[in-house]
Design brief:
The complex is a heterodimer of chains A (about 140) and B (about 375).
Chain A lengths: L5 H4 L1 H56 L6 H16 L9 H20 L21
Helix pairs in contact in A: 2-3, 3-4
Chain B lengths: L6 H4 L13 E8 L6 E6 L11 E6 L4 E6 L7 E7 L7 E6 L5 E6 L3 E8 L2 E9 L5 E6 L5 E6 L3 E7 L5 E8 L5 E6 L5 E6 L4 E5 L8 E6 L10 E6 L5 E6 L4 E5 L3 H4 L8 E6 L7 E6 L5 E5 L4 E6 L10 E7 L7 E6 L6 E6 L4 E7 L1
Antiparallel strand pairs in B: 1-28, 2-3, 3-4, 4-5, 6-7, 7-8, 8-9, 10-11, 11-12, 12-13, 14-15, 15-16, 16-17, 18-19, 19-20, 20-21, 22-23, 23-24, 24-25, 26-27, 27-28
Classes of the chains: A mainly alpha (about 140), B mainly beta (about 375).
Function (chain B): Essential component of the cytosolic iron-sulfur (Fe/S) protein assembly machinery. Required for the maturation of extramitochondrial Fe/S proteins.
Keywords (chain B): Repeat, WD repeat
InterPro entries (chain B): CIAO1/Cia1, WD40/YVTN_repeat-like_dom_sf, WD40_PAC1, WD40_repeat_CS, WD40_repeat_dom_sf, WD40_rpt
Chain lengths: ~140, ~375
């Protein structure tokens, strides 16, 4: 014979499980929603930065085609290296280990080329190190 | 402990003579003119011999660089010959003469480095190097004068080539330090670059296959008996086989490498810790400079100048350097830079937060 108190004895456990399941389902939905937002934001930012460099490289390359002597050999090497890095960037594979490494190299090459060409170009989204350390230093 | 015998270094002190122990550091002049703290001093290497009066540059928080010249060969008195202003918009942190003495490079907190040329006694800004994201902390010329290095709070070190007509182009951007880079210095004979940083390390950079591909070939940090706090400055001995560094950890460290002559065939010989001068300083050591005669000078936040020499009486395992003298209250505030002049009887110049530069003579 079933214990008539059985269901009330397990009352706490039952409610706990019910609540847990509900919370889990909710978490799954809102977690996915958050992840989509973060993915959209980060993906957009990376796309924007890569697109910015792509645009610069394309314009510089057109300039070189018009006048191959306009830019110094070092600047031209830098532009070619940027082009190579842009092609190598695994756009559709965000978990690829190389992603950060390639972006870092692109940023350095970009700075070097700008310096060689005496132009002041700034990608607006570029993380400024000055914002992270505002303390007085000498 | 250290079983290094000290044959190589001991010859360096011979020129100073026997009486070095009884020498004193005598103030010969106090130069006023800068209206803010004086950060750095650099002697023009093409002066002080062959009948050319000594000349040096000083850079300051007042955004200017001043050039000082010995009034005549027989006196040790200096006058301000030029004020280089209206170019940098913030503190000029460092200055350096090219090996020929014709060009002066100045590094500023305005993120630029300027190159000045002496045109008939007037200094003209002939080139501006832009690229660093923020404050440029130091600038250095290589031995042949065709390469410049700069470093910045942006944690990077840049190498530039100075071409014909003073055209300057970036050769490489070196990233490796994890913090503010305080000073860059080229080796006195080889194209090997040294940088020291707020990340407590000294890094050595070389372009081993000479293809603009500069890489960090060695990092001298805590695991190699290195400094435990910010490394502020470094200097080489005349031969270039020893290097001295100073730090916020209150020590001065001496490093050595294999015989430099053997290295000329290429290949990099690593540096190793030789000794640590500890217990002498009780505040941050900001500057250290090795004279051609082998006297180490240090400038520190306790307003004092200290001189160290090779310890000739040292027994095996004993200290390799000893304190020659300590000049207390050399300045009213922190001493940012000490530099020995070129020439036969070197003078010591010191620059301070008190806005003055002092010239010192080591005399009996």
């Amino acid at each position: 014979m079933a214990d008539i108190f059985d269901s009330s004895l397990n009352l706490e456990e039952t409610h706990f499980k019910e609540g847990y399941d509900e919370g889990y389902t909710h978490g799954l939905i809102s977690g996915k929603e958050d992840a989509i937002q973060v993915g959209l934001k980060v993906g957009f930012e990376i796309g924007e930065e890569l697109g910015f460099y792509r645009g610069c490289v394309d314009v510089w390359n057109s300039a070189i085609r018009v006048d191959p002597t306009r830019f110094s050999p070092r600047a031209q090497t830098g532009i070619a290296q940027m082009e190579e890095l842009l092609q190598k960037y695994p756009l559709m594979d965000p978990e690829n280990q190389q992603v950060q490494e390639i972006m870092d190299s692109l940023r350095i090459k970009f700075k070097m080329v700008c310096s060689s060409l005496h132009v002041k170009l700034d990608y607006n989204g570029y993380p400024k190190s000055s914002s992270e350390a505002n303390d007085m230093q000498f | 402990m250290l079983k290094k015998k000290k044959a190589a270094g001991s010859s360096e002190c011979c020129c100073v003579g026997m009486a070095i122990e009884s020498m004193e550091l005598k103030e010969i002049q106090k130069l006023q003119g800068h209206t803010d703290r004086v950060w750095s001093i650099d002697w023009n290497p093409a002066t002080g011999h062959s009948g050319i009066p000594l000349l040096f540059a000083s850079s300051s928080g007042d955004k200017t660089v001043r050039v000082w010249e010995q009034t005549n060969l027989s006196s040790n008195l200096f006058t301000c010959k030029a004020v280089l202003d209206e170019t940098h918009t913030r503190t000029v942190r460092s200055c350096a003469w090219s090996p020929s003495g014709k060009l002066l490079a100045t590094a500023s907190f305005d993120a630029t480095t300027a190159i000045w040329e002496n045109v008939g006694g007037d200094f003209e800004c002939v080139s501006t190097l832009e690229g660093h994201e923020n404050e440029v902390k130091s600038v250095s010329w290589n031995a042949s004068g065709n390469l410049l290095a700069t470093c910045s709070r942006d944690k990077s070190v840049w190498i530039w080539e100075v071409q014909q007509g003073n055209e300057v182009e970036c050769v490489s951007v070196l990233q490796g330090h994890t913090q503010d880079v305080k000073m860059v210095k080229w080796h006195p004979t080889m194209d090997v670059l040294f940088s020291c940083s707020y990340d407590n390390t000294i890094k050595v950079w070389a372009d081993e296959d000479e293809s603009d591909d500069w890489q960090c070939v060695q990092t001298l940090g805590e695991p190699n008996n290195g400094h435990t706090s910010t490394v502020w400055a470094l200097s080489f001995n005349a031969r270039g086989d020893k290097m001295v560094t100073c730090s916020d950890d209150l020590t001065v460290k001496v490093w050595e490498t294999e015989n430099i002559d053997i290295q000329s065939g290429g290949g990099f010989a690593p540096w190793r810790h030789l000794c640590t001068l500890t217990g002498y300083h009780d505040r941050t050591v900001f500057s250290v400079h090795w004279s051609r005669e082998g006297i180490l000078a240090s400038g520190a936040a306790d307003d004092a100048i200290r001189l160290f020499v090779d310890n000739n009486e040292s027994e095996v395992g004993g200290p390799l350097f000893k304190l020659l003298l300590k000049k207390e209250k050399a300045h009213d505030m922190d001493i940012n830079c000490v530099q020995w002049s070129p020439g036969e009887k070197p003078l010591l110049a010191s620059a301070s937060d008190d806005g003055t530069i002092k010239l010192w003579e080591l005399a009996p």
